[in-house]
Amino acid sequence: MAVVTRVDSSRLIRVDQANWLNNGEVSVGVPVLDVSPNNDWSEIRVWHIPGGHWGGRVYQAEGFIHPFALHAALS
Q1: 7-30: string of b/e by CB count within 10 Å (b at 16+)?
Q2: Mean pLDDT to the nearest integer, 30-35
Q3: Contact at 8 Å (CB) between 40 and 10?
Q4: pLDDT value of position 25
Q5: Would you call 35 exposed, middle or buried from its count of C-beta atoms within 10 A (0-12, 13-18, 19+)?
Q6: How many CB atoms are closer than 10 A to CB 58?
Q7: pTM of the model
Q8: Which structural domain, as residue segments, surrounds residue 22?
Q9: Mean pLDDT of 54-65
Q10: How would residue 64 be classed by pLDDT, with cut points 50, 70 and 90?
């Protein structure tokens, strides 16, 4: 699970995420890169924190929650 905390560009965001490393530890400000051919965020790479590089796997993205959008939806 990840929550978007910052939008850096149309293809790069930062997320706070859990359940990826170290038994569910929360990672803060992790870069996520859109690598989809159509720039639609359907395929992403996640920054590998321990290695200091982009992860080797491309993940199929199912959606993101941006805190501002969530706040607006709950208001």
Answers
A1: eeeeeebbbbbeebeeeeeebeeb
A2: 95
A3: no
A4: 81
A5: middle
A6: 14
A7: 0.79
A8: 2-74
A9: 84
A10: low
